[in-house]
Structures are given as C-alpha cells and as structure tokens.
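Researcher: I'd like a candidate sequence for this fold, 63 residues long. If you have to choose between options at a position, lean toward the conservative one.
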C-alpha cells in the first residue's frame, strides 16, 4: 500500500480534502495502482516551528 506524506501549513478541512484527492489521483495515474490503495498523511507545521536560512518562517516576509 503506497503512502504519501506531505508537510505544510495548516489547512482547512475542505483544502485537506482537495489535496488528498489530487495527490491520490495523480499518484494512482502514474503508478497504475487503484486510488483505494493509497494512504495520505498530512502533517501541519506551525510557521513558528519552521526555519529557513536561519530565520523563522513566521517572521519572513513574502512578496
């Protein structure tokens, strides 16, 4: 049984549903295993717990 793990920001339940569906569909198409065979785990990371280049993600400004 294939396992897909993704780490990212906190998401609404609707966005999680959309993400799980899209990842499962894409992986199923590539690997040629039925969608029912996939498990997806979402790990949500608080921006205070992520560092990039020595700075906290929560303190970075993006354009």
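Model: Candidate sequence:
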């Amino acid at each position: 049984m294939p396992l897909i793990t993704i780490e990212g920001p906190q998401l609404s339940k609707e966005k999680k549903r959309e993400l799980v569906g899209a990842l499962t569909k894409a992986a199923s198409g590539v690997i040629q295993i039925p969608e029912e065979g996939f498990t997806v785990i979402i790990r949500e990371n608080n921006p205070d717990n992520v560092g990039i280049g020595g700075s906290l993600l929560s303190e970075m400004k993006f354009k």
